[in-house]
Amino acid sequence: MPPAPAKRPSAGLGSIVLRPRLSHGFAKNKYNRRAVKLQILLPINIVAGQKDPAPAFMKENSNHSSILSLTYFLFFAILGVFLPYFNLYCYHLDFSSRQIGALSAAMALMKIVSPVVWSHIADRAWSRRDISVFTSAASAGAFLLCLYFTGFLPMLIGISLYSFFRTAVIPLVEATTWEMIELRGGNYGQIRVWGSVGFILTSWIGGWVLDRFPLKTALYAIFVLLVLLAAVSFRIPPSARPADARKGEHIFSLLGRRDLFLFIATCAWMQISHGAYYGFFTIYLEESGYSRSFIGAAWGLSVICEVVLLMQYHRWFRRLRPETVLIFSCVVAAWRWWILGSAESLPFILLAQAMHAVTFAAFHVASWTYLNKTVPARLRNSGQGLLNASSYGLGGMIGLGLSGFLYDSIGPKNVFSLASVFAVWAAVLAVLHYFLSRRKGSGVNPSITGPQ
Fold first, then answer.
1. What is the pTM of this model?
2. N or C: which terminal CB in the chain sees fewer CB atoms within 10 Å?
3. Hey, is 296 helix, strand or coil?
4. What is the CATH number of the domain that holds 315?
5. How many domains does the structure of the chain reveal?
6. First to last CA, the chain
């Protein structure tokens, strides 16, 4: 007689039932219910002293979250040095404000081309990790050239190549993060927040270091961080091909929808309004007599407020539609730029920096939430690329170029006042988008959700 099969332990006393909480960014849909069972029984025989390991997918999810958090950390740690100090470095190379604006505009132009190109390739080849590794390594190689350039034209070529490769990284990482959240659950804010932590650390440390060492030290630090980012890219989770993937479809087929077009336009004008800030805020503070340590601390303060909002977004904005958050963020941005255009005193500068929590963090999460509700999973990479290209790319190029052109002729205060007007126009577009999306039922794709 064959032995009786062993009885499967039941979930009772001594068992733990895990029901993963549907936290920020977890998609509640049939696709996930097929892919992941939300109820997992982990019987633990306490009397016998047996213990079962955590489920494999939970360990894998934790590892993937850690890798993505580290990727965000390094990517924005680079930005924490580059954004406050690269334009200042060029300023001390005796580049004119128009040349600095041209460099910034060239980087923004690459932000238009690069995300669309590389994201389209990723949607066709489903090789997101390989592309991330290649573009990260290539950006490090391109930036190495900038360490030795002192003329405007060579620097323009070097920084354009650097931006072309580096800009491809973040849309792919964003797509990977949302895909992991959709399949296994998770909290977007708790992963993305590490990018803000990286920015805070490098901007604060950078200010302290550069008060004591030559300004070119910032470029060496950027290169080291780029090499580390390329190394970490090898561990980014591979792409999961969605079941509804279809060849021959591209993201531009969705732009015929008026609500999506208004959404893209809102994001673009919001970034146009940020042009003066990203391009000339550091120079504006130095010309006003503030030390580099204070400049680094001011940038760090803005990101501390950003961190708080990322961690609390669900609690503070859970009752609001992302379209409503977009309107609110644009209104706050108009107020922020008006403050910088009207006052130089320390309290007002700190207040304007604290508003970064809304003008960047809240706007960022609301934008990605709406995008991932609207764009099908099969076009996830291209959707991220299009949003980056139109907002940070096209909008950033116009804002930075216009600010550089006008900075000397009309002065920094008037440049920031003009930025306030741009933010008001972004708010008008956001209101139009809100009513149009409500009338059309938001056009929400049931297979995609953002933070709930």
1. 0.68
2. N
3. helix
4. 1.20.1250.20
5. 1
6. 56
